[in-house]
Amino acid sequence: MGFIHRHKGLVPYLLLLPGIAFLAVFFVVPTYYLANTSLQSGDVFDGYVFTWAWENYSNAISTYHPQLLRSLQYAGIATVAALLVSYPLAYWIAFRGGRWKNLLLLLIIAPFFVTYLIRTLAWKTILEDDGLVVNTLQAVGLLADDGRLLATSVAVVAGITYNFLPFMALPIYVSLEQVDERLVEAAQDLYASKARAFLRVTLPLSLPGVFAGTLLTFIPAAGDFINAQLLGTPREYMIGNVIQSKFKVIADYPEAAALSFILMATILVALIAYVRALGTERLSI
Amino acid sequence: MTSAAETVSVPRRSGPGALARAFAFVRRHLLTAYALLAFAYLMLPIAVVVAFSFNNPVGRFNFTWQEFTLSNWAHPFSYPGLQDAVFTSLQVAALSSLVATVLGTLMGLALVRYQFRGGGTTNFLIFLPMTTPEIVMGASLLTLFLNFGVPLGFGTILLAHIMFNISYVVVTVRARLVGFDRHLEEAAMDLGANEFVTFRRVTLPLIAPGILAAALLAFALSVDDFVITYLNAGAVVTFPLFVWGAARVAVPPQINVIGTAIFLVALLLMLANILWQWRRSGRS
What's the complex ipTM? Predict the structure, then answer.
């Protein structure tokens, strides 16, 4: 205790040390080994050796760019769909929820309490070929009589949207909750219509939440493989399916590691493009 | 967009414009209807999971409703291997949430209570695991274990779960610490309590709900995790891995029973936490 009194400045570092050390060893250092593995060559029987094998990257891209593009596409559509569902919902809870806000938020995260794989399998029941959803869509002519949802890209995107929706809704709710309603009233006192007050006051103030929500939805969605595996077919497989099968089924570790890096790089590029687009859009508001 | 809104806002002074009236109607009715539909969408799969835990399926796949039965609930572990998998999941969740809560709470305290060099870097390091796709995190951890020849199993699962849980604990604890009134601690110190007594008798009770919420979140994330576990599990089977393995050959209704049970326990704990906060805020 005497030591702590004499070196007060060290206290925060001592508190941080165990956690930082753990993250360093099991999060940061593994990135080095992922990079190292991605440049190894050899085969599963004789083992893999580091050889600066850059061809792992070019081979991976030339073979698997369809899955990579599909990942971006599915994740992008799912993110937009999640935004369309989440924003009005979060708005309603933030401004109409009253004292029930916490309970309504609990309903939003309730899907997370059902094991990921089980709630995805539930969508298999909901979308099955002779199920209520398919029959209804066929009855109103939105789906051909022999059409199906299961084993299509629609099912995969729907599953991804559902599974990551709370990641979108919660940050939007948090930013809407912080909007000072007096600002909206002030805008209306100054003769702004409700629509205009929303567009010029509430919406811009909630954009940080939208931004955080889209990141938190898009990133895990782009790396997902469970929805494609359970609700789709190999025609809907995403880059995550390729990575997991290379690690777990055929033990091609170098190419799997290269694909992991390619996925990260692709997500990063997509994010930079998104930040730039959002930045200029915000300037025009 | 701007020009359309402006043309509408001018006649607004004499009487509500068409757009304004339409928007008012949307606000009044459609928004509520939309929100209720969205809630229905969120609840639908949960309802299916619960309902199908009472199903008596024909064949190996529990995807089509046949008839009501209580036998799945009476014998939840009758499916071979399920009991071990659930037990493994609970062990991993208990241990990993305990360690992650301790490490994460210490970090949260450091970040909120102290000014120090390197705070930005630390925040970034905490933020990164939450924004890295699970498959990449699981893959890099696996390459670490592969390169060092670490045998995959219970230990590697545990390390992985502690790793991805720490950030969530830090964020949860920190959120509760930000609104913390430091005058209470100063009052305790003025009354002669030393730092450790102050921490134990004042600080800890005040941040306990935050720590408990973080521990619950970590436990839930651990029980639910599939991707990172799948890559680093070796031959050990947790509950999600069991579901994955089973889904290829069969989906027994007992899976829904366990899923429903996990759901109910998590829901009750969260409700209890909300009620606890209501009571505390009501008292103060």
Answer: 0.89
